[in-house]
Each structure stands twice: as structure tokens, then as C-alpha cells.
Amino acid sequence: MEMERSRLPDPPEIRQCLFIRALEEADPAGERLILAERIAATKTAAAVQGMDFIRARVGVLGPRLKGSLAQAFAGVARQHGGLPGWMVPAVGAGAFLLGWLTHELGREGRVSLLAFPLLGLIAWNLAVVAAALVGHFKKSHPAAPGWLANWQRGPAPTGDEFTDRVVTWVHQEWAAASAPAWMARGKRLFHLAALLLAAGVVAGMYAQGLVKNYQATWESTFLTQPVVSKLTRIVLGPASILTGIAVPTVPPQGGLSPAAPWIHLWAGTAGLFILLPRLLLISMSGREVSRSGTAWVETFGEYMASVRRMAEGQPLVARVLPVQCDPEPRLRDGLRAVLQHLWGGQVMIDFLPAVPYGEEDECLEQLTEAPTHLVLLLPMAVTPEDEVHGVLQRGLERLMAKALVPPFALTVLDGAGFEGRLAGMPEAGRRMGERRSAWEKILGPAWPVLVLDSAARRDPASAAASVAPARQSLRLWTPAL
Predict the structure, then answer these.
(1) Is residue 440 part of a domain?
(2) Are 381 and 413 in contact (CB under 8 A)?
């Protein structure tokens, strides 16, 4: 509840919050924004809750950015994020004027009861209203249309690959997460325009009727007077009850009757079947806009929990799951060095019990809670099997997909044994590449793959850089829409 009471940030603030979050996701080791500054910012903002906490923390971290990051941080706040202020009144005025100009009742003072200017408009509105209500109660969440992401162009490239990647993430998240609000505003504007179009038609009819005497008539090749009379009573009956104006007697085909009561009844029918439904849809769209604003609290929920845990000193633990191998101390030390370069020096490595061949299903049954960081350690010398290693990998992917906090994952192939077997052979490099390709074909592209060979142990920083995608969580903190 405290989160809901906090003031919702405006779009520039939200984009800057997204920027800091994306920066921390892309830089878990604290190379661009050091961990001590993140922890200090969290402690400074710890007294407030909800979006006030995120905003206060960003207010501390933003001024500490340097170079291209500072430039991009300022740029996302200036990014175009809304409709021009003149658009709503311009569209409304245009719709009313269009209705006014298309209100023509008929030439030579005649208006046809079967070709009334409002008849088609009422039918079209009823169809649109029915479709809108069906779509609303389905509670579907359409993805952001492509034109929206293209129209909301982000800041120009800075020339720094890391910064530009962060900006791209922010742009994509903003376009996706703001799509419900954009579409709700679009629907509200559409319904307002339809309402004002009908209002313009009605106003134009009355204005024309003030300066000209119209008579009602009708003609038809197929309909008879009793049929037309029944149709008009059905269509105009609700307006007759509401206004107290009786539905006039339909004149014989080609005959005339005063048009004023017909105009009043058609205007009342338009009020019932256009004005009221459109007002309802405008109200529903307005509530959608309001709900989309409060959804930002949920969007940042797990991120808030994560940064608070870091400030409270809770250790970051990477679980290593060895399969068909028992990692020796030298391998453990080499893997630990790579993971600390990859996920930060504060990471602690926890080696889980090794999984023997044939016990993959039992392993998946025992893993009931997804870790925040998981490393699947496999011996490169073993021939990969889809029914064994592939099944285990896919089971772990399903487990990690259930994590409350977006998790990080990496597959490591222990190349020491295989490399030793090939030592001195001229085709060693080729065979190492072929074996890696065979493993990647079985494991699939979901997780980055690192071959922990002698080169990786000698230069753990370069090895970590080779699997830079593992620095990004398996799914962003932004929930799927």
C-alpha cells in the first residue's frame, strides 16, 4: 500500500529510472557505475517507498554519471513522450466540423426516412461499440505496434557501444511498457472524435432546419408503407419513450409529412446509441490510462527488492551445477575468477552436488527454487546427448523462467580434459571448435556458452567478456505485457 501512495513519476522521470535500471543490468560488476555508489544511493533513498524510492535513488546516481552515460541519461529525459497539446482539440474540432459539413438532409426541402443522414452513422457506431466492449472484457494486452516504437525515436547514438546498448534497452522497454497507455489514449481520442462527428451532424441538421422548411418522405422498390412504419417504430421507439415525442405516421410512398418530429427523434436516437455509448467508452479508456500509470509500480517492483537486498549486504550467490564431473580445485578457482569478472567481485560461488549420468530427472525434481545466478558445468570431453543433456538444459530453463527476480545463467564447458587429449595435435583447434558446436546444437541458444580452457584460466577477464550476454538477465525486470 505504501508503494501505491507514492507520487507517480512523469514520463521523463520514468525513462531515467529505466536508464539507471538498464545500466545496472548491463554492468553487474560495477565497472561503469561502481557498486559502492549504488549501495550508498540505496541507503540514501531507503526511508521512502515505491516509486519515490526509485526516483530518489536515480536522483542520487544520475549526477554521478560521466561522459557518454551522462549525455544519454539527459537525452532520455528529452525523448519525445507524448502527443502535442494541440492534437486533442484539433481532432475534436475537425470531427465536429466534418459532421457539420456532411449533415445534408436532402435537396428541395425533402428528407428521406430511409436515407436519413444519421442512420448509417448510428449503425457504424453500434458495430464499433460492440467490438470495443468485446475487446475490453477479453482483457487482452496487445503488443506495442511497430510504428509506435519507430515514432518514439530515442536519443541519437553516443558513439560508445555500451552506452548505446543501454539506450536501446531503455527505448525498447519504454515503447513496450507505455504501449497500453498510448493505446488507451488513442481509443479515448477516437471515441471523442466519433462523438463530436455525430454532434456535428445533429447540430448541422438543426441549423439547416432553422432556415429551411423540410418535409419527410420515402421511396422504395421493395418496401411497403406498413413495413416502413414498423421499422421506424422499432428504431425510433426508444427515443420516443425518452423524449415523449410520438413516432409520426409514415406517409404513403411519395407523400409528405412535417420533418421536425422525425429530426427530433433521430437526434434522440443518436443520443441513445452514439452519445451515451461513446461517453461510456471514453470513461473506460480514461480508467485504462489511469491504470497504466500505476502499473509502473509493478514494473519496478523486483528491481526495488534487488537493490535493497544489495544495500543490506545480502551476498550474491552463483550456484554451479556440475554434470557428470567432479570439478577439481584448479577448475573451481578458474571458474570462480571468470564469474567474478562476469558478475562482480562480490559474487560467492556455491558448487552443488554433481549430477551422475542418468540422474538428470531426479536433479530437476530436487531443484524446487530457481537461483538468481546459475552455472551449468559440463565436461567438454563427453559426447553431448539430447535425451540427457538437452533434457536437463530445457528443464533448467523452465525452472529459471519461474524465478521471481530475473535470473542470470551460463553454460560452462570444462575443456581441460578434452584439451589435454588433443595436446600437440595439429587439428586440436578444429576439433575443439567442432565439439563446441556439437554441444551448442544440443543445448540451444537460450544460455551463453563458455569454454573454460587453458586460455580462459589464464585471462579470466577476456573469458568473461566473451560471454557478455550472460551479464544480462534471462528476462528483463519489465514484466511481459
Answers:
(1) yes
(2) no
